[in-house]
Automatic annotation (TrEMBL):
The keyword tRNA-binding does not apply. The keyword Zinc does not apply. PANTHER family: MEMBRANE BOUND PREDICTED REDOX MODULATOR (PTHR30238), SLL1022 PROTEIN (PTHR30238:SF4). This is DUF475 domain-containing protein.
Length: 366
């Protein structure tokens, strides 16, 4: 991706997403017709696919912004690889393979049997998926919490949106491992609230989520350092790719589990969430090529606050059910407020007509 294509209209970035939407909704309708043989079944499947797509988009605004934040540091080759192979992994891996793997492990059956279970006994399949919600929420919530806290606990961070809070976190970032200690304390509190076997499961899953984050950080640094040794221009390569894939997986946990509240059909879920994933991809490309993150200085802050809230919600969902609409709207509202704050900042400082290349220098000198 190059800045030369930044003159493209906003709608121009969503061409493939629109094509996938039409194809997905048609396929969803045909699936409903095939299952029921009625127009009512066709309309129901069509509607559920559309709702799931909207749900995925609302839950993934912050995902797109974080992806763009990482992608802008990657070489064009690795950007292209993430936006092609990465989206294949996101759509088919997380929306189809991941649920099948969870059911296969939980039910002690092979993946093919899990697929047949999804096709022939969707209610039992959904029950197994719901039964696996606690460890998934603990793992994903911990990983996302570390992503959010690592952004704010950074002593080099000098652009602050909620100044009193972010300045304090930047100050305490000099204490090594403070974000890890914060996450572990949080996990212990929730494990205590759960009690019994659930507490043990929650705690183990949280530790695995923490270790996964740390391992990805280590592997990312090692791989990217190796690539830089081979070529000074090879920045943000395989390590960054792996980081983004695991991050996308963590974002997807909540949507995949929540989708079973609307339908128990794995294939309808895959179509609906897959449509949403294409819009996330389009938003990511637009943010990178248009330099939106440079123009709106608080947009990243809003995304990372949304990540932190999502991680807490995933923890809380192990105790009580929280509707997915609240999860999605909460993140969207935060990002909207951060965008509004950025626009106000630009107006106050006469930055409306400045180029995307100038803003990073402003941020470095802030």
């Amino acid at each position: 991706m190059t800045q030369s294509s930044s003159s493209k209209s906003t709608l121009g970035y969503f061409g493939w997403a629109f094509i996938v939407t039409i194809a997905g909704l048609v396929l969803g309708g045909l699936l409903g017709w095939n299952m029921t043989g009625t127009l009512g079944g066709l309309a129901t499947a069509f509607f559920i696919c559309a709702v799931l797509a909207v749900l995925e988009i609302s839950l993934s605004f912050d995902n797109a912004i974080v992806n763009a934040n990482k992608l802008k540091e990657m070489t064009p080759v690795w950007q292209h690889r993430f936006l092609t192979w990465g989206i294949v992994i996101a759509v088919f891996g997380m929306r189809i393979v991941f649920p099948l793997a969870i059911v296969a492990i939980a039910a002690h059956i092979d993946p093919w049997e899990a697929l047949k279970l999804a096709a022939t006994r969707p209610a039992q399949y959904a029950e197994i998926m719901h039964g696996a919600h606690l460890p998934i929420a603990a793992f994903g919530g911990t990983f996302l919490m570390m992503v959010g806290l690592t952004y704010f606990f950074n002593h080099e961070k000098n652009v602050h949106w909620i100044a009193f809070l972010e300045k304090a976190m930047a100050h305490f970032a000099t204490i090594k491992g403070i974000e890890i200690a914060f996450v572990l304390i949080f996990a212990l509190i929730f494990a205590g609230l759960l009690g019994g076997e659930d507490a043990t499961t929650f705690l183990y899953s949280s530790v695995y989520g923490l270790l996964t984050f740390l391992l990805v950080e280590v592997v990312s640094g090692f791989l990217d350092a190796s690539q830089k040794t081979m070529s000074a221009a090879a920045k943000g390569g395989l390590g960054a790719f792996l980081y983004l894939e695991i991050l996308d997986a963590s974002f997807s946990f909540d949507g995949v589990i929540g989708a079973f509240a609307l339908t128990q059909n794995l294939f309808v879920i895959a179509i609906g969430l897959g449509i949403g994933a294409m819009y996330v991809r389009s938003m990511t490309i637009m943010l990178v090529e248009k330099g939106t993150l440079a123009h709106y200085r608080y947009l990243e802050h809003g995304a990372f606050y949304a990540i932190l809230i999502l991680s807490v919600i995933m923890y809380v969902q192990t105790l009580i059910h929280i509707p997915e609409v609240i999860t999605g709207l909460g993140g969207a509202v935060l990002i909207g407020i951060s965008l509004w704050s950025s626009i106000r900042y630009n107006k106050r400082n006469g930055l409306n007509h400045r180029s995307a290349d100038e803003e990073p220098r402003d941020r470095a000198n802030a």
